[in-house]
Amino acid sequence: MKIKDKHIFELIKGGGINFIFYGLNLIIVYLLAILISKYYGAAAYGRYSIIKSIILILIIITTLGLNTLAIKLASDSKHYKKKKFKSNFLKRSYLVLLISSTIVATLLFLLKKTIAIDLFNDPKLEQYFFVFPFLLITAVFLNYNSNLFKGQKRVLLFSIVSSFLNNFILICSLFVVFNWYSNDELYLILGFLFSLIIALIVSFYKIFPIKYESTIKSISTKKLLTLSYPMMLSSSMIYIIFSIDTLMLGFFELSENVGIYRVITQVSSINTIFLIVFGTIIGPKISNLYSEGKHEELKQVIKKSSKLIFFVTLPILLIVVVFSKQILMFFGVEYMKGYYALILLSFCQFTYAVSGFVDLILNMTGRQKIFGKITVISAVVNLLLNVVLIPKFGIMGAAISTGFSILLTNTIALIYIKRDMNILSIYIPVFKNKR
What we know:
The protein has about 425 residues and is mainly alpha-helical. Helix content is about 80%, strand content about 5%.
């Protein structure tokens, strides 16, 4: 078997394991959306979505890019090899995460009333912020540990811990509590916290005790942050693009519309399932091949991977578009107002998926500052478009803003990668012989 085919075989094999849990997690996420909507209403699901979006953005801020750096360092034999750490980056990172997340969580707790009433105009949102400090700190460490597992190529563990486990626990908790104890919405957020804590405990169990080499390389906190900060701008800004629309919609619209829009974004994101699944494997591989100077091999791996992504994602797009009305009706008749937004976002997410691993390519080859600039531009454009379009078009305005930002990010990144690295990371069938 050729070397490049060996990499693709590893990609499919590892991705297959990840796909099983990611697919199960996707099913649970949709069941969770249905369960919350049926038990507590679309408005409650909107509040739950707002909290999750705030947490996602604050994870970006509080981790300072250390979560993305963990993938790179854990896949680098200079820092981690044969289940032993060769540097102190983990200990240093934990200390930074604890301090930053505690400060931000405390600040949000003190401003809970202002955020709930003045910002989102939803008094019921205030009760969510009573447990928010614990939610954020737990989510920050769980996110970091999950990325560490990804860098260590512990694919199965990453798949379970990153989202599957806590979503499974949450849906079970809500089912039991609602049917046999209480229908108070407070237990929705308490269940969310409980699920994150259990997942975090499992992740720590798989990390501790930490095993070090007899001689370890010392990295200062300043050095870590110097390496991680550009990654915060590059890899994390893309998540802001996917979250800011939910928060902006919550600012201008009712929580019910936020819940409807959140379902739409989740359904459309099915198109990215294989990109995310294979990204778990391809990220460390890109880093290894580039650091070893195997540029031609790297080029072939990206080419083969993008082709694979195209053909496995196209059927998903067709299914979502053809059966979009039936999918939305399954959640409830009120969700039909998001029909056209779902179609638009599905095509944009498909484009995002088949553009290849532009974020991983740039982040794992030392070009994180470039991608950081690209995503900052796109995030600013997304924010401005949301401010202009949501008041006029509501859900559709949020979809247009996010869709355009996705296309802008990937188009600029694709052009840069082609010009700087001579790699066309998107697979276009009609150009397949010209790459």
